[in-house]
Amino acid sequence: MLNPLSLAYMGDSILDTYVRKHIILKIKGKPNRLHQLSKQYVSAKGQAYALNILMENEFFTEEELEIIQRGRNAKSYTKAKNTDIQTYRKSSAIEAVIGYLFLIDETERLEELVNKMIEITEERVGANG
């Protein structure tokens, strides 16, 4: 099993790619506007919020819950930017699941998770940011 921080590293990139695709196809704006919108979807606070909602709704499988726990408990040697450590750890946890699903080629489940996260974000901040 890979290091949970390595999974989170991969998951961060994958989530960013899915969010960029979603925003480009939906908004069709200039790059600066797209970047400003994407930050709402990929921020640590937004990811932690989505994780909380998904946990409340029992979205995750047992295997995914194990990855979440490992991701949340992993000792990171980088400092959280613009957020507290609990929020940073929750965002790392959900990124670890995304990275895990990507690396084991569970594309359907990965897309289900990312689409749910996008939906949660849009409900929280409004459909157009």
Q: Choose one word for the global shape.
A: globular
Rounded to an integer in angstroms, the radius of gyration calculated over CA atoms is: 14 Å
Number of helices: 6
- Compute the average pLDDT: 90
- Which stretches of 5+ consecutive residues score pLDDT under 50? none
Taking the alpha carbons of the first and last residues, their distance comes to 37 Å
Function: Involved in correct processing of both the 5' and 3' ends of 23S rRNA precursor. Processes 30S rRNA precursor transcript even in absence of ribonuclease 3 (Rnc); Rnc processes 30S rRNA into smaller rRNA precursors.
Subcellular location: Cytoplasm
Subunit structure: Homodimer.
Enzyme class: hydrolase
Report what the structure shows.
It is a single chain. 77% of the residues lie in helices and 0% in strands. With 129 residues, the chain is mainly α. It starts with a helix and ends with a helix. The protein has helices at 4-27, 31-42, 44-56, 62-73, 85-103, 107-125. Involved in correct processing of both the 5' and 3' ends of 23S rRNA precursor. Processes 30S rRNA precursor transcript even in absence of ribonuclease 3 (Rnc); Rnc processes 30S rRNA into smaller rRNA precursors. GO terms for molecular function: ribonuclease III activity; rRNA binding.
